[in-house]
Structure formats: C-alpha cells, structure tokens
Amino acid sequence: xxxxxxxxxxxxxxxAFASADPDRVAAxxxxxxxxxxxxxxxxxxEKVNDAREKINEDAYLMGDNIIIASIGFGLCExxxxxxxxxxxxxxxxxxxxxxxxxESRKKAAARAEEITAMKAEYTNETRMIFLTNISQNEKxxxxxxxxxNYDISRAYAGEFLDGDYEGYYSDCVVPKFNHIEGFNxxxxxxxxxxPLCKTKKSxxxxxxxxxxxxxxxxSDSHEGWRMNTNIILKKKKNAVKICLRNFGISFGCFSxxxxxxxFGTGFVFKQK
Length: 272
Fold this sequence. Notes:
alpha+beta, 6 helices, 2 domains, 35% helix
C-alpha cells in the first residue's frame, strides 16, 4: 500500500512538471527578475532555479552576472528555459556589447584629446578686460576704446588688437573650465578663460561666444557642421545651469558650481 502511494505521488509530480508551460513560466520569471535591484543577486539565482525546477530543467549554476547580462541582451527567457540556442545568442550579444564599449572608450578618448587641445590653445592668457567703473547706462552703446596688444577673445579670429577700436561695453562671464557636453549626435563646447558676452541689453542671462560652440556629427567619426549658438545661464543657489539656446528652446544643458564662473564687464569689439 505504501509503495502504491509513493508511486502515485511520483506520477502526480511528473504530471505537474509536464503540465507547466515553459514559455509562461519563463515569461513570468523574467518579468520578476527585471524588477529586482542590483543587490538582489541571490534572489535572481533562486528564481531562475525555481523556474527550472517547475519545467523539469537542469539547475542553474552560472551565477548572477550571466542573468543580468541575459536580461540586458533580451535573452532572459531563453536562459530560464535552458534553451539550446541561448549560448550562441549570448556569445554573439556579448561580442556586440564589447564592440560598443570599445567604441565608447574611443569616443571618450577623442573628447579628452579635444579638451587637452583646447587647454593648450586657450589657457595661456585671460582674454577679458575687467572694467569696474562702467555704469549700466554706458553699456551696449557703440563707442571707441584704446587697447594695447590685448589678445581678447571677442576679437574676431583671435586677432591681436592694438589702437582705437569700435565696440561696446557688455555684461560678460568667463567659464573657468573646458567642457564638451554630448547630446544626440551633437556636442556643446565651452572653452576655459574665453568670455561669453551679451550682444544686447537684456535681463536674461543670454550670452554669445566668439567661437563655434555647437557641432553636429553626420556619423560617429565625421563632422557635419559647426555653428555659433546663444548660451543661457540659470543661477540656482550655488550652481549655474548652462544651456544652448535657440528659437526659445534650451538644450544640451549641464550644471557647474557657481565658483566655476567669473561674472564681470567686458568690451565687445566690432568686426572690422
């Protein structure tokens, strides 16, 4: 009698395992795994093994990193089901991910080289004249100013200025850093010690650069075009949010501590 009961229980268990739908078990398990936190490694391994037990597959013994990667590659359900195609799909996805990481490192290195080149070109001198006794009424009015061998960024093409030049006093800000902010297929450039100045009287902190500060790429390695785009600053407590500004829309934004900027008065030189 006891032997008969044991045989019945074994038969019922096998029937239960056989009746479990592998696709459904895998789908439910993966939906749970995708909501877990980084710290839940043992829980993920446990859930995969629970699922495999339900569908009568071999125990999972490869660790949590493989589970996380499989979720990222979209192969979670194949892993849970112990599908024969999982290993090949995983290997191919790993190669693609490694190639993308290598390309990202290459881009990061190129940006670092560009920043280094910018520093070498622009940090030798400060290119802004501070004028402490200029009233707001005197600003943005065309006037003449005597300069003596100042290499001022607001001069066009970085030319040296000497003698009397026409221009106007302006509200300016000098970033004390180089920065390249990537967004979509574009870069927003800010150059260290190169002043940004207002080109018209306004309460808004909208400034202009005298260099092309927006670069669009046709592909990862080929530049499409460069342009000069207005910049807007927004002061927030001890930080400044800086964005490109066009057609009333801000984009390519990033934030820096307020101490990374020097606000003052400069002289904007008109193009000859």
